[in-house]
Amino acid sequence: MIEADYSPGRIDRFLRALPDGFVLRLVFYTLLALASGMVALDVRRAFEAAAVDDRLTRTEPLPLPLPRPGDQIRPYLPRATPVGPERGLPDLPGLEGPAQAAVLSEPMRFLPAPGGVASAVGRIEIGMAERLTEFLDSPAGAGTRTLHLHSPGGSVADAIAMARTLRARGIETVVPADGYCASACPLLFSGGVERRAGRNAWIGLHQVYALDAADPALAPDLDRSISDVQTTIAECQQLLADMGVKPALWIKAMRTPPAELYVLTLEEMQDVSLVSARPVPAA
Fold first, then answer.
1. Integer Cα distance of 128 and 72 in angstroms
2. pTM of the prediction?
3. Which of 122, 140, 227 has the alpha carbon at shortest distance from 179?
4. CA distance 12 to 9
5. Is 281 a residue whose pLDDT tops 70?
6. Would you kindly state where each structural domain of the chain is located, as residue ranges?
């Protein structure tokens, strides 16, 4: 048997030259760096989740700059109202005193006022379409000719039904100066036979969204959830077409994520025929 003359290669020579324990320390520090990165990612996600939770649940006003042309994306506040140095509190017929922010976290109320005027204030909860019909059929609401809106939105299906009720009964809609009409509320607003918006009225849209499909208790069938959203989108488009609003409005909505709001300028509302009458003067 001939004994081979073994000459270590460069890699072997490099590894043999390393201090004892170097490889183990390298592995340890690599794992430590990976673990630190994962912890940092978890902390970031926790902060992001807390920020989302604060946005979804806060009822206190949130200071935000007034949208300007080209700078119109703002956070969507489902239970609060945006405020700022250029915005006051809306004057709503039938509501005693100024419209404090807390009213937006409550289910929508219908408030009659003299002269055929009423206000719809609060969230559009499921079943609100029936409540509107009951109000308009009641002695207090039977003579309503103009409905003032101040709402963060809510149930899209109810907003669509409410819009059709207003159109069938020949009722005008108004978002008063410094009012807030977001998410599903512009659909309700579109039902007015005449539609007016006041100075600094905050009218905004975003994408239609479903329940969180990650929670099986809320959305057990993802395919059905997606199908429902697509059906709802078609119903929204049909409503706007029937109400005489140009489809360009819905394009702006579909480009805006659910957590945000595309706030329309008065010129945009006029261009797409969302407003059909002169602006409402400030109170």
1. 29
2. 0.75
3. 122
4. 5
5. no
6. 10-52, 64-271
Query: What is the distance between the alpha carbons of residues 120 and 256, in angstroms, rounded to a whole number?
Result: 26
b/e map 91-103, b = 16+ CB within 10 Å:
bbbbbeeebebeb
Q: Which residues of 77-87 are buried (b: 16+ CB within 10 A; e: fewer)?
A: bbbbbbbeeeb
Three-state SS for 143-194 is CCCEEEEEECCECHHHHHHHHHHHHHCCCEEEECCCCEEECCHHHHHCCCCC
Q: Which residues partner with 195 through β-bridges?
A: 173
Q: Is domain 64-271 given the CATH code 3.30.565.40 in the classification?
A: no
> In the chain, what is the straight-line distance between the N-terminal and C-terminal CA atoms, in Å?
108
**Which tokens belong to 144?**
């309503």
Q: What is the pLDDT of residues 53-79, one digit of tens each?
A: 555 555 677 788 888 999 999 999 887
> Are the C-beta atoms of 76 and 51 separated by less than 8 Å?
no
